UniProtKB/TrEMBL annotation, chains A, B:
This is GST N-terminal domain-containing protein. InterPro entries: Glutathione-S-Trfase_C_sf, Glutathione_S-Trfase_N, GST_Omega/HSP26, GST_UstS-like_C, Thioredoxin-like_sf. The chain crosses the membrane at residues 202-224. Signal peptide: none annotated. It holds the Pfam family GST_N_2. The lineage of its organism: Eukaryota, Fungi, Dikarya, Basidiomycota, Agaricomycotina. Residues 13-104 form the GST N-terminal domain. Keywords: Membrane, Transmembrane, Transmembrane helix. GO terms for cellular component: cytoplasm. PROSITE patterns: GST_NTER (PS50404).
Length: 267, 267
């Protein structure tokens, strides 16, 4: 019986533990772990502590940012069975596929390069230039974070976008409407990929097999759903898109959405 | 023995038939037909005749352009064995896979949706916004077309780009250098996809299997190679990129580059 994997995730304000997880990037890993049925426990890390966590553990930064500065991100996992740390949700999926070959495969080897291209395509449609999903989601996410993360989140995101969070997509503004159309078009384009060759597919590889590309889509949908809540006009709007496809995807993923209580990070 | 497929392609100035084919989009189909070993004969169609050809044959336009106007493009094939017309190189690849299941598969069904995402990613990296591959290739292509196609090509492309062909990337200009960097970065990004999961691959699906994504890359490379010629500084530059990867790809594709004499279109 393998020891539980340690999964570092970012919390938000929540009344119940199951509502604590929100980040699309860490959801990719939570879905991966849940789909594989691997045992894990969550450690909740506030934004300003991510860098300190990496340094304490002696783990290399995930990436370097545009300025060449190291970039420390979650998800990060520690697998006590192999004593390995792995960050970046796609790298984690590949690591888990390799290390636990008896669990469902998320990135079949022969689709490895196509999956990499998928990630590029996904970025291109969801945030094409100066409009998109992030514009709407950043300010909505900010207000739901714990105070411990809010200052860091505001500072870094306002630097990326070059404006105050409140200016990105004010509710009721034409600007927000424009971003909303980009989001709708982005989902519509993904729906088109899933219908390639005039075949209807709920999942990328067809049939009942969930792969990493599906997880990426589902992670963005749960971010959206958990942000606006299931009785919001936004969620009802999304349910009406693309023949109800995204509601069906959500239903297929619900059984993979368990969130453990976890414990706060102790530095 | 099936009857030869009719393959409508766009010619350019050439001293030998094998140098007549140049268009990356029709090369995707020529590679597809050659790799599958299907018998076909080329009909050479100058740009201004493409629309008339579709109308004469009673074939629906490939697509609608941004203004909603019908968009008539090559490649187009006519398969006398099924009496079907098919346009768009990806649709043709899927049609050939389905109709000739004993030939090498180009888009395995389970990669259909990922292939669609690949095409979006490819577009995003090769022509990201206001710079890229097309800026360099359009004027270089123009001078190599037959006079019968040049007027049409200039008019439509200058409308798309909003400037004279000669202004897109003048030789020796800083502008051209910038476009060149975009091209180099684009190939470098594709090289990154091919190395996903820290595995070295020449082809997308790994191993020796050529799939449609590889054909898309090879079609752009042959456009480049046939445009600048193999003793140009441009081609030697490309051979030096990404550890010589693109030269290796070219060598792997050479055996699939036969071009028949074909015959000119008679309307």
């Amino acid at each position: 019986m393998p020891e539980p994997i340690v999964f570092y995730d970012i919390p938000r304000k929540a009344n119940v533990p199951s509502d604590t997880a929100w980040s699309p990037n860490t959801w990719k890993t939570r879905y991966s772990l849940n789909i594989k049925g691997l045992s894990y426990r969550t450690v909740w890390v506030e934004y300003p502590d991510i860098e300190a966590l990496y340094k304490k553990l002696g783990v290399e930064p995930t990436d370097t940012g545009p300025t060449g500065a190291p970039f420390y991100t979650l998800p990060l996992i520690y697998d006590p069975n192999t004593k390995e740390y792995v960050s970046d949700s796609a790298a984690i999926a590949r690591y888990l596929d390799k290390t636990y070959p008896d669990t469902p495969t998320l990135i079949p080897k022969e689709t490895d390069a196509l999956h990499a291209a998928f990630q590029r395509a996904f970025a291109a449609v969801f945030n094409p230039g100066n409009a998109g999903f992030s514009w709407i989601m950043m300010p909505e996410t900010y207000v739901r974070l714990n105070p411990a993360s809010q200052g860091y989140f505001r500072r870094t995101r306002e630097q990326w976008f070059g404006m105050a969070l409140e200016e990105l997509a004010p509710r009721g503004s034409e600007k927000r409407q424009k971003h909303w159309e980009v989001v709708k078009d982005a989902f519509h384009e993904v729906a088109g990929w899933l219908q390639a060759g005039r075949q209807e597919r709920l999942f990328f590889l067809g049939g009942e097999t969930i792969c990493y590309a599906d997880i990426v889509i589902a992670a963005f949908i749960i971010w959206f759903r958990n942000t606006f809540s299931e009785d919001s006009a936004e969620w009802r709007d999304m349910l009406s898109w693309d023949g109800g496809r995204w509601g069906k995807l959500t239903e297929a993923f619900r059984k993979h959405e368990s969130v453990d209580d976890g414990s706060p990070l102790e530095l």
